[in-house]
Amino acid sequence: MWSLDQFRFDEGINASQVLLYDDQAGQTKPMSLTEALRIARSRDTNIVAERPDNDEFPACNLSRVTLPLRWERLPDGDDPEPVDERLWFEGSCGERDFLVEGEGHSFRGRMSAWCPHLRRSYRVSLSEMEPMSEEASYFVRGYLSGSEPNPPTDGDGNTTPEDLLAWRSATKRFRRTGSWYGRWGTCQTCGCVLLPDSGDQRCAEHSTDEEL
Fold first, then answer.
1. Share of the chain above pLDDT 90, in %
2. Both 174 and 185 in a single domain?
3. How far apart are CA 84 and CA 178, in angstroms?
4. Which of 6, 63, 116, 180 has its CA 20 to 30 A from that of 27?
5. SS3 (DSSP) at 152
6. Which domain holds residue 38?
7. Do 180 and 109 meet the contact criterion of CB atoms below 8 Å apart?
């Protein structure tokens, strides 16, 4: 999500040429920013850049802008997420805590949880969630599948067979462990490059059962 100070419209669009979508004509036309401003003012509206990126030829549309800028507000925007008591797991306090909807906004794979006993929200990983309900296990499975990073690509969008194999191995283990460190590391025994889901000091071949 972008911040409101990245919103660009009219003369705030840093480009001399734009791609303007004209809803009346039902088509997109390339034109100068000056021409786009003329069209907008003739219709008592504004030019709004669709994205905050500093493109040389940004896509724009005609839309009304009211100053000072403000976000849309939902009626329930500040209400806490409801707790589904079917999504329970045993928390570190030894009692039932609950998974709640939403991204953990922490390390990849960490989920949002609510502890009703301490009355606080926190982040939790799969490795910290045993035992759990069947419903929670399916929630976690879907969450981790949706959190998988994309495969690595070069500047042309291609992936080498070696990188693809490593990505498939790492994401498969990620779905099982819920851990993704996303940093470089090497095995202290053989020196191979560790997969990004691993925080170990050794690769799978040279790890002990406890380290796996």
1. 61
2. no
3. 21
4. 6
5. coil
6. 4-63
7. yes
- Long-range interactions of 34-43: CB distance < 8 A, separation 24+: 36/60, 37/10, 37/11, 40/10
For residue 70, tell me if it sits in a domain.
Answer: no
User: What pTM value is reported for the model?
Assistant: 0.62
Distance of CA 54 to the CA centre of its chain: 21
Write out the two tokens for 163. Answer: 């990188």
95 and 47 co-located in one domain: no
3-state SS class at 141: helix
Q: Which alpha helices (H) appear in the chain, and where do they start and end?
A: 33-42, 134-146, 161-177
**Cα–Cα–Cα angle for 169, 170, 171, rounded to 5 degrees:** 95
Domain assignment present for residue 73? The answer is: no
Question: Could you report the per-residue pLDDT of 34-55, keeping only the tens digit for each?
Answer: 999 999 999 999 999 999 877 7
Q: According to the model, what pLDDT value does residue 211 have?
A: 46
16 and 29 in a common domain: yes
pLDDT in tens, 193-205: 999 999 898 999 9
Q: Using CA atoms, how far apart are residues 146 and 125, in angstroms rounded to an integer?
A: 15
E strand map for 74-160: 88-90, 96-103, 111-115, 120-124
| pLDDT confidence band for 108 (50 / 70 / 90) | confident
Sheet with 111-115, side-by-side order of all strands:
88-90, 96-103, 111-115, 120-124
